Amino acid sequence: MNAIVVVPTAESHFESLHRALDIVAREQKYLALTEAPPLAQSIAFYRSVIGSGFPHFVAVDGDKVIGWCDVSPVFGHSRAHIGVLGIALLPEARGQGLGGRLLQAAIDKAWSRGLTRIELSVRTDNLNAKALYERLGFEHEGMVRRASLIDGIYHDAHAMALLR
Q: Which residues of the chain have pLDDT under 50?
């Protein structure tokens, strides 16, 4: 078995990253998406985040992307100091400490890029993710009621943020 490495996302990762995104999205539990957008649209997003110097990291096992973490820009000049966190792992990659490795890499790059706030939303039933965010210093800022709607069921989310 290959050693799992956490590295900055490169063009060579895009197709495998898109496949991983689709797998996690179809679980309908962790992401705003319930399926991956078309490959070209995903590649445009990856290139945009990377091209603007924002963090985008992947966990790779051999040539397979098994997880990712990104911090993407938010709209507005007055919010240029803020990034929005996105992170996910394939089911078989969970519970091995990879989330913490990915998250720390993204936080370090966000701070070196000059960001001073990283925000995220996590469903209230995603206890493992919330615990990870808390371990890395994210604080609960409020509850987003009816934050998502899946198969006719609303789910609330915690609004959390980490300040530099």
A: none
CB 122 within 8 A of CB 133: yes
| Maximal CA-CA distance, the chain | 47
* Helix (H) / strand (E) containing 50: helix 39-51
pLDDT tens figures, 109-122: 999 999 999 999 99
The candidate with the shortest Cα–Cα distance to 85, out of 67, 101, 71, 103, is: 71
- Assigned token pair, 21: 């995104």
Scan for tokens 């959390």, then name that residue: 160
CA angle 27, 149, 70 (to 5 degrees): 55
Residue with tokens 């911090």: 71
Order of all β-strands in the sheet with 117-123: 4-8, 56-61, 64-73, 82-89, 117-123, 153-163, 139-150
Which phi and psi (to 5°) does residue 128 adopt? Answer: -65, -45
